[in-house]
Structures are given as C-alpha cells and as structure tokens.
Amino acid sequence: MVRVITYGTYDVLHYGHIKLLERAKELGDYLIVGVTSDDYDKTRGKINNQQSLMERIAAVKATGIADEVIVEEYEGQKIEDIRKYGVDIFTVGSDWIGYFDYLNEFCNVVYLPRTLGVSSSEIRESRRSISLGLVGESSFLNKFYKECDVVNGLNVVGICAQDERYLSEEIRGLPILTDDYSKLLEKVDAVYIRSQPNQHYRQIKEAILAGKHILCEAPRSLIEKQWDELSLLAQAHEVILMDAVKTAYATAYARLLLLLKCGKIGEVVSVDSTCTSLISEDIVGSDAFKCSWDNIYEWGPTALLPVFQILGTEYKEVKIAVRYADKKQKHDMFVKMNLLYPSAVASIKIGNGVKSEGELIISGTKGYIYVPAPWWKTDYFEIRYEDQALNRRYFYQLDGEGIRYELVSFIKSIEEKKNHLEISSKVSKGITKIMEKFVNKEDLSII
C-alpha cells in the first residue's frame, strides 16, 4: 500500500483545494491530510482564517477524499508524521517547489500543479472589503498602518490629521488626506482613532452618528458619563465600538490569563505592572511633544489592563503619586498608583522620561508569574514556585506587537455584528474612571 500525505490550512475549502486533494489521492492508495491548527497558523503569519480548526477538518472530511485527517501543530512535525504513519510520498502544491526538498531523505516528494485563478486569500479578500480611515497625528500611526497591510480585506483609504509632519510618506500619500473629520467619515466604513484623548469623545460620537465602526486607542474617553453615553449610542446605532490596547491581543498574554483562571498560582494577592520609556529633555514643549500623548494616557491603559483583568475593577481605594514634566503641571512624566482590593493589592508604575524595569509580576498563594521587560509585548512568561523543579516557561510567537490580531478581531466583530472583546466593558470603563480621577486630581499627590 502506497501511503501519501499532504498538508494545508483548507480555510474556506474551494475547488482548487479539492482538485489538489484528488491529485494527491491518485499518487497512492491511502491519503493522509494534515490540517494546520490555529496556533500553528499564527506562528506562520496566517491570522485571517475565516473558519475554526474543527470547521476546516469537517470540510476536508466531507469531501470523502481523505482516508485519514490529522492536525499539524508545530514546525518539524512533517518529519515525525512521515515516520509515524509510514508515508511513502509527501506532496504539496507547485507554489512550494524546492521548499520541501529536504523531506526526500525520508520519502518521495512530489509537487502537484495548482488550479489557477482561485485561492483562499482571494476569497477572504472578496469577503472583506472594509475601508478604514486613520485619525490622529501620532507617529504610532506609521506602525499601525504597516500592520494593516498584513490583514486581508482591510483597505486604509485616508487619514484625518491636524499636523502631518510626523506621518510617513506612505500615509501622506493615501487617497484622502484631510483635516476635516466629516469628509473622512463620508468615505470610510470604520475609523481607527489615535488622536489626543481629550478629542476621543467627540470623534467617537460623530463616527457613531455617521454609522461608522470605531477602533479607538484607550482611553475611550476621560469622563465616565461620556463613556456610558458612547456605549449606549453605539448599541442604538448597531456599530462596533472597540478599545485598542495591543497587549490584550497577544497570544502569550491571553494564555497567561487562562492559566491564572485555572489556579496555577493559587489565589492572586498582588499584581505589579511597570511600563516606562525615556524621552530627551529638550523635546518637552516642542511640536513633537504636543503631538505625543501624556504619560498617563500613553502607558496608563496598558499598565492597568492586567490589574483590572485579573483583580477586577471593584477596588476599595486608589492612591496616585505624580511628577510633572512642566511647571504648569499639564504633562506628567511619572505616575505611581496603588490600588487596594478586599483581598489583594495592585500597583502600577508608568513613566515617560523616567526609566525602570518594565516587568509584570503576579503573586499568588502557590507561586507567581513573571513576565520580563517589555512585558506589554508579551511573547514569554514563567510560572515560578518554591520548588524550582516545578517551574514552567511559556513562549508564544508575537508578530506585529499584537496590532494585527487586534485588527482581525475588529474586522470579525464588524462582519459578525458582534463584539469579540478581549477588553471587557468593565475594564474599559474602569480605565476611564482612573483617567477621570487623574484629570480631576482626585486621590492624587504631587511629588
């Protein structure tokens, strides 16, 4: 019996897939089809799958062509599978010619001609035709724009900016370059807002009333009542309103939260989060400084994210210490915040012009989780115990700092008309409440 094996994602199974499977089956007597797992696809940069692993497996089985279906979960598995299943022929499409020649050491490698004119990427592209507008002046938009290119079917068509000096040539070359927000809204399906936080409320409200979907860099607003108003307004107009904090969409960070829920370190009694960056002293007061966010807005939502997602937002009290960068006390450069819960404590330390170790430490009754700097770009963490032999290390590949996964979640929410929230409403609102306290200088001491 000649055993043949082939692999693929098989997302949105189409005629091209079926023809390739039929050709593979003709090479032998028994066909094994490997379907890539969701996590493995992420490590390969495939983040746009329309269907879950189980849906893709079911689609392959439904063709009746495969004699056996397995799951491909990691790089290097092909060699192990060839040995395990006694494979005689490995085959893939001709677009991979030469890439898998190393497998000739273990079996015969055959490259099959692909069916021209059809691909899953093109099908996904045709299904997703969301035009996106950018809002703001921050240089962060340059990074965000590059990540948009990775996501199929998302078409950035323009930007609304009051100052374009810190934007890339690619962004300045978009079809729409305007300082009139209403003109941008006329031409897009959705907006990504990275303007100054004190403008978020007005811009989000205007977008909702225009029937546009919104991805807004946290904080969504600086006043709790405005947050409530925007949430109700978005529901009434049936648009997606989603907070953007890229860390929330990192695979490693999501796995960390799941392990905590499973009680891996017992009851959590403390969360300590640090986020800092340095800026040169001569930039304070410059035009570039005016286009950047204050420290509390730049780092506050990120540092508060694990605190609120792990301990919740029902703290008993909060104490804030702040050092300002200017005599008028308009721009903070360092903030230390302590939160007291009924059975736990938390602290965040954030700085823009002050440097510290950017780590995240979660202390529990059985052990603790350590995420090294820069923890907000989470791709690795450790669970540590008193008995070091029990320590565990976890690594998950992070591409695009989580921005591309954030975009995929946003698109999925729009398509399915349902929020796929990695940041809950409670957490989003909790961040706004802290921002309001800071602006009003409640529970705040100046150092």
TrEMBL record:
Gene3D superfamilies: Dihydrodipicolinate Reductase, domain 2, HUPs, NAD(P)-binding Rossmann-like Domain
Keywords from the named record: Nucleotidyltransferase, Oxidoreductase, Transferase
Cytidyltransferase-like domain segment(s): 5-125
Keyword Acyltransferase: no
Pfam families: CTP_transf_like, GFO_IDH_MocA
Occurrences of domain Gfo/Idh/MocA-like oxidoreductase N-terminal (ranges): 152-242
Gene Ontology MF, one: oxidoreductase activity
Record has Transferase as a keyword: yes
Cited SUPFAM superfamilies: Glyceraldehyde-3-phosphate dehydrogenase-like, C-terminal domain, NAD(P)-binding Rossmann-fold domains, Nucleotidylyl transferase
PANTHER family on file: OXIDOREDUCTASES, TRANS-1,2-DIHYDROBENZENE-1,2-DIOL DEHYDROGENASE
Family per record: Belongs to the Gfo/Idh/MocA family.
Protein name (record): Adenylyltransferase/cytidyltransferase family protein
